[in-house]
Amino acid sequence: MSAPEVLRRLARNWIGLPDVPGARRWAWVAVIDAVGTGMRIPVTVLYLTAVVQLPAASVGVGLGVAALVGTVCAPAAGALIDRLGPRTMVIACFLTAATGYFGYLAIRDWVSFMVVAVVAEIAEHSARPAKQALVAAMVTPEQRVPLMAFQRSVRNIGFGLGGLTSAALVALKAHTGYTMVLAGDAVSFLVAAALVIGIHVTRPAAARAAGAGAGGGGGGKASPRGGFREVLADRRYVALAVLNTLVMTHVTALNVGVPLWIDQHTAASPGLVGVLFAMNTALVVLLQVRLTKGISRVGQTPPVYARAAAAFALAAIVYWAASLAGDALSLVVVLLVVGVLAHTAAELYGAVGEWTVSVNLAPEHLRGRYLSLFSISFSAHQAIGPVLVIVLITQAPGIAWFVLAAVLGVGCLASAWLAHGAEEPAETGTTTEPAAATAAPGTDSKEASSTA
């Protein structure tokens, strides 16, 4: 058996590679994208302060403003997804991101920093709904959640590889290392864009008809019927998007809350954080797809949301108990490990609920707009979540984890209630997006797109 075949079997049996056209190519896109991002994130602020020599406060303000601009532009990206097709938008976002991160190498002052940061953030915020819409267009409704779960698994592998690569490059030669990391991230977007060109997708017939009417000069509508007015009139979907801001508490609680809690309120060494995060990453890689089995419809998500709430409540209790264990280091470590195990379960189940309701409740002809609205919940949580977690853990440690569990529990249980009995929009006829095939003449485009 060849090495590639062994790797494919391992991917299918352990991580859960869906056996669908384009899945392997999309897996490579996800890994390459994540490697670049994993390289960049740890060094961006250091590069801007140590190499460009911008004040740290100015960097923080600039990144915050750029993220806000990216969030505001997300709805426009949703309209373009519906008009141009998700694959075209994913490619455009990757190329724009490459331009932005190459631009980081030309930063000389705060103004030039703001220009390239805004370009990069617009691309990053627009890419999220575009990638979700692309997955939805690649496969059947039953295959969407497994493919998104697999994408998340391999992205975690990519983040880890990217972080290690970044650390090695910067350790070898600081200033040159920063340049190589940022250039490498930009190149990763170019490679990912090239791979996406070969992925076979379908477009809803309704969206294509609307696009043709808009571009043909025949007086057709400029956008699919209803546009954002129809999205905002869908009160169930808007409510689920708002509640997802609360469900996302598990992310900030892990990334910000756990390290702060270990450092300030337990006897464990801060070095344990790296071990716990590595354990979390490994579990996501191995279990995310397996936990999606049997979940493909919105009506199946209420128990999933309930499990996420229960798992996070258990994690909160165990974290709190770790602070009461005093100097019994072995007990503290055991409790923290159990806490992260439960926390990871909440993360895994919460992600499944989010994917299922956000994609399956979005009508095909407005899927880009719907998903761009849902993506705002992530930006909102990124703005609010860290402040909430830090204030609770530093100012009210006795109740911090119970408040966080209550916040996530309200989000999950209310989402479960809204998902119960929700009717999914009917799938309309689909047509192949015109630029999809990169196969040689006479070759089935699906066969071509399944090769990495």
Automatic annotation (TrEMBL):
The keyword ATP-binding is assigned to this record: no
Keywords recorded for this protein, A-Z: Cell membrane, Membrane, Transmembrane, Transmembrane helix, Transport
GO molecular function, one term: transmembrane transporter activity
UniProt GO cellular component terms: plasma membrane
Annotated spans, Disordered: 424-452
Comp. bias (Low complexity): 427-443
PANTHER family with a match to the protein in the record: MULTIDRUG RESISTANCE PROTEIN MDTH (PTHR23517:SF2), RESISTANCE PROTEIN MDTM, PUTATIVE-RELATED-RELATED (PTHR23517)
Protein name from the UniProt record: MFS transporter
Taxonomy of the source species: Bacteria, Bacillati, Actinomycetota, Actinomycetes, Streptosporangiales
